[in-house]
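Q: What structure does this chain adopt?
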Amino acid sequence: MSKFTPGKWRARPSKYGGEIHIDDTNGKAIAAIHRMKEDGEQEANAHLIASAPDLLEACKMFLTLVTEQQLFSGAALVKAKDAIAKAEGKDA
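A:
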């Protein structure tokens, strides 16, 4: 898998309407969500996508802490490992 564009990402409405853009810190477009309906679902999806680098970093920090401190194992640990693998394009 290629490296992804480093975060912080942000979601913003398009100047022309009809889309929500996800940009990197330099304002370079990463992705666009087309507004098909006005129920807020596309905007929520755009914000979720924009949070992806932060969520990946948080999961990695969580996994490191849990593993090094041997705090606990179980479902949360498995979910964190699977989420990191998925984000990095690896098989979970």
